[in-house]
């Protein structure tokens, strides 16, 4: 039986009257490249924040790598890597200083931190900007550094919130390759992205959340089975997404904006 | 094709006023902003009293000069107006929220409209409004004292207002350019702080070199006639004496000034209009050679500490080094202690006939040192920004993070205390041994005790601060209340204990009491650290929300 990397039961988060995540039951097996999709405001970031310890759930349970999060937060955090929504960078450090800081926070010794930091900066093409303060980096460079920091300790689960946003095509290609290799070695990757083509290309399994509730979950094949097919062609993830989430009010209102077209 | 009919200039000014009002109103939805509004109302009340008082001064001054045929000194009143109008907005630039005036450029505005809106902004400025009220008082005083000269005074004041608003906008545009870059902004504020500190020494310097300096100033006074304020004052003075040709000449010189600065401002606004880029990220860093990254050995001496504590400790030191504002702030306490010792202590104090005794002066200065230096610890996460998320996602307990931050605070305090003890010893002499011991043990009690409460305050009432900015850089209202309450409590208790030695005739009693209290403070500090880990977990949303905004 495959090991479960991430499991939630009735996971709920409320903000006053708003229920951002509503009784979510999610299962992600180890080694899966898992895409977590949903329209704006559906609860994706709230979920990822709860799973990484940035937000406490209102109710429900979650366990990672078989450990209950509420009981073993430190043990779990040691084994996960995160690129949070705001990237969580200390902007007044330079890249080597930041990676050294993160490596030491995860308990790596100095020599290992130094070696990995050097390799990661080289891989991310940031080595020649090692003296520049992070505050002066472009958005894409900050994203690459956040990714480097998320993997420096060799996590078993990697949470990525919009990891390719602002990253150039060359770096994105290298990153995708790196992530694919990590999953081959058994690392679980939990990724949110609005670019459905990326998710379709990278992810073996996908879950779709709408208004705080999971509306679909499974492999690409399983998702295709649950949606009426279009004659003559294979359903894309965009077809599935639109079918599950609905066309949305935006398209029907296009007629109202006739003065724009 | 865009079916846009450009709004008129008045409409555009009205729209911009509406925009500013909505921004202010929307910002008041948050409770903390409402507290700011309260502060604004209170400061507004005192500002109104100040403006009213100065208005009376300008009225009486103008009236008196005209009635006593001393109109040649009117130029000094105009000079005061000029200095106020130009300096006050620059001093405020770092502290008050700046509306991104240049952002209006994305709308279809003509350069002339942009220029006029800029001038309208200049007139709506608080310094300008106060100056306009004072000029109105001068015109009113002229009407009372010498009605015939009132039209000339009105004309001069109008031109002088036009000149001032133009110069102010020009300086404002250059200050904006200066403050747009982080490094120049930090240098500007550091120089500003140093200037403010240096002002404290004005009185002692004047006492020693006053006569020489005044003589030098008198030598320079004749050159003031070249200033626009002198031309403004002279125009009225000549008109009063019916020397119309001279008056016209002076008015012409004032008009030349107005024209000159109008051209300069037009050129500056043209640069803005043509798309001058001021954003901080616009300038890409130069490409550097491949860096050889060596592991830092800076903290090897603290190798007995856990790696997480060392990591945060090192990061804090790097942040301190790069925070020019905080870094220069460290100069503040020793300089003020030097100032106080010159004024009040030693054999020949400048402010008193006899110096305060070392047994009183030394504990007082040390209390002041703790008061100033420990204040930032009450908002310990202020400069973390989005980095606070890393603390929560990493396998680190907040006891380690707080411990590292407190270690840096203690290191700074220790360095400053050692330096200041030497300074006070040199300037005023050290106190008796029992008072010296009591003061030092009392400081340990106060620092450790306060750090415990400061940690609680930092987790409970965080407020984000930014490097190289002075605008809005203050702790949350609750944090300030806690700081004051705790300082009054610790200060009061410490003073009572210190004086108990005199009252009971046991000079070593305060040191003994402080030693016991210091031990208790240490016990309290370490037992609270674990609770703060739990508190951080409970408050993480507050922290992330406040610091990542």
* Mean pLDDT reading of chain A: 88
Return Rg of chain B in Å: 29 Å
Please identify the structural class of chain A as seen in this structure.
Answer: alpha/beta
Largest β sheet strand count, sense and barrel closure of chain B: none
Strand content of chain A: 15-25%
Quaternary form: heterodimer
Cα separation of the termini of chain B: 39 Å
Estimate the helix proportion of chain B, in percent.
over 70%
By secondary-structure content and strand pairing, the structural class of chain B works out as mainly alpha
Q: How many strands, what sense, and barrel or not for the largest sheet of chain A?
A: 6 strands, mixed
**Greatest interface (CB-CB under 8 A), with counts per chain:** A-B, 49 and 45 residues
Provide the spatial order of strands within the biggest beta sheet of chain A: 6-7-8-3-9-10
Approximately what portion of the residues of chain B adopt beta-strand conformation?
Answer: under 5%
Shape type of chain B: globular
Task: Tell me the name of the CATH homologous superfamily of the largest domain in chain A.
Answer: P-loop containing nucleotide triphosphate hydrolases
* N-to-C SSE string of chain B, H for helix and E for strand: HHHHHHHHHHHHHHHHHHHH
Radius of gyration of chain A: 19 Å
Separate helix tally of chain B: 20
Tell me the distance between the termini of chain A.
Answer: 55 Å
H/I helix tally of chain A: 10
User: In total, how many domains does the architecture of chain A comprise?
Assistant: 2
């Amino acid at each position: 039986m495959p090991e479960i990397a991430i499991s939630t039961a009735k996971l709920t988060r409320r903000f006053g009257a708003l229920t951002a995540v509503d009784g979510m039951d999610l299962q992600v097996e180890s080694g899966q490249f898992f895409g977590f999709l949903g329209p704006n405001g559906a609860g994706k970031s709230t979920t990822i924040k709860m799973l990484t310890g940035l937000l406490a759930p209102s109710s429900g349970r979650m366990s990672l790598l078989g450990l209950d999060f509420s009981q073993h937060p430190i043990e779990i955090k040691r084994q996960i890597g995160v690129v949070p929504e705001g990237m969580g960078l200390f902007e007044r450090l330079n890249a080597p200083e930041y990676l050294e800081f993160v490596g030491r926070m995860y308990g790596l010794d100095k020599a290992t931190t130094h070696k990995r930091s050097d390799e990661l900066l080289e891989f991310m093409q940031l080595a020649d900007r090692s003296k520049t303060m992070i505050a002066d980096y472009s958005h894409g460079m900050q994203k690459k550094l956040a990714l480097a920091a998320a993997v420096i300790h060799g996590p078993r689960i990697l949470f990525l919130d919009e990891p390719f946003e602002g990253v150039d095509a060359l770096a994105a290609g290298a990153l995708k390759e790196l992530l694919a290799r990590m999953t081959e070695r058994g690392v679980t990757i939990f990724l949110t992205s609005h670019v459905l083509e990326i998710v379709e290309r990278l992810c073996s399994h996908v879950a779709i959340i709408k208004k705080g509730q999971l509306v679909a979950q499974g492999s690409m094949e399983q998702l295709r089975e649950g949606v009426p097919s279009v004659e003559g062609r294979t359903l894309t993830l965009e077809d599935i997404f639109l079918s599950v989430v609905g066309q949305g009010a935006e398209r029907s209102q296009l007629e109202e904006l006739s003065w724009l077209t | 094709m865009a079916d846009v009919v450009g709004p008129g200039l008045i409409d555009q000014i009205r729209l911009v006023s509406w925009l500013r009002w909505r921004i202010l109103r929307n910002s008041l939805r948050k409770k903390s902003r409402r507290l700011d509004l309260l502060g604004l109302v209170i400061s507004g009340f005192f500002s109104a009293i100040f403006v009213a008082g100065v208005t009376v001064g300008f009225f009486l001054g103008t009236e008196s000069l005209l009635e006593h045929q001393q109109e040649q000194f009117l130029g000094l009143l105009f000079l005061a107006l000029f200095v106020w109008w130009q300096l006050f907005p620059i001093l405020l630039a770092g502290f008050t929220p700046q509306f991104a005036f240049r952002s209006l450029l994305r709308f279809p505005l003509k350069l002339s409209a942009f220029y006029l809106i800029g001038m309208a902004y200049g007139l709506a400025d608080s310094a300008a409004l106060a100056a306009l009220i004072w000029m109105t008082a001068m015109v009113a005083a002229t009407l009372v004292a010498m009605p015939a000269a009132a039209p000339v005074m009105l004309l001069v004041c109008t031109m002088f207002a036009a000149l001032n608003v133009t110069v102010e906008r020009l300086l404002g545009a250059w200050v904006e350019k200066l403050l747009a870059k982080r490094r120049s902004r930090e240098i500007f504020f550091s120089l500003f702080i140093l200037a403010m500190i240096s002002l404290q020494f004005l009185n002692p310097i004047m006492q020693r070199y006053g006569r020489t300096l005044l003589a030098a100033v008198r030598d320079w006074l004749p050159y003031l006639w070249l200033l626009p304020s002198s031309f403004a004052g002279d125009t009225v003075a000549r008109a009063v004496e019916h020397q119309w040709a001279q008056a016209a000449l002076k008015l012409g010189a004032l008009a030349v000034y107005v024209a000159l600065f109008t051209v300069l401002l037009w050129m500056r606004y043209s640069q803005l209009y043509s798309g001058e880029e001021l954003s901080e990220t616009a300038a890409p860093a130069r490409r550097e050679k491949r860096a050889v990254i060596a592991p830092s050995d800076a903290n090897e001496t603290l190798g007995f500490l856990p790696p997480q504590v060392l990591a945060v400790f090192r990061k804090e030191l790097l942040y301190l080094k790069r925070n020019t504002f905080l870094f220069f702030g460290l100069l503040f306490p020793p300089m003020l202690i030097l100032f106080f010792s010159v004024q009040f202590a030693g054999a020949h104090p400048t402010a008193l006939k006899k110096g305060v005794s070392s047994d009183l002066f030394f504990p007082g200065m040390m209390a002041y040192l703790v008061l100033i230096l420990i204040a930032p610890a009450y908002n310990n996460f202020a400069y973390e920004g989005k980095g606070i998320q890393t603390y929560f996602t990493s396998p680190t307990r907040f006891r380690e993070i707080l411990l590292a931050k407190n270690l840096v605070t203690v290191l700074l305090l220790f360095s400053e205390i050692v330096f200041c003890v030497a300074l006070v010893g040199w300037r005023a002499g050290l106190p008796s041994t029992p008072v010296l011991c009591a003061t030092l043990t009392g400081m340990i009690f106060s620092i450790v005790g306060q750090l415990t409460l400061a940690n609680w305050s930092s987790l409970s009432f965080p407020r984000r601060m930014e490097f190289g900015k002075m605008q809005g850089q203050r702790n949350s209202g609750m944090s300030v209340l806690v700081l004051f309450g705790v300082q009054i409590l610790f200060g009061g208790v410490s003073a009572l204990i210190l004086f108990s030695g005199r009252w009971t005739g046991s000079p070593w009693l305060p040191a003994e009491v402080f030693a016991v209290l210091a031990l208790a403070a240490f016990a309290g500090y370490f037992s609270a650290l674990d609770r703060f880990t739990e508190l951080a977990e409970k408050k993480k949303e507050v922290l992330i929300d406040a610091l990542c905004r």
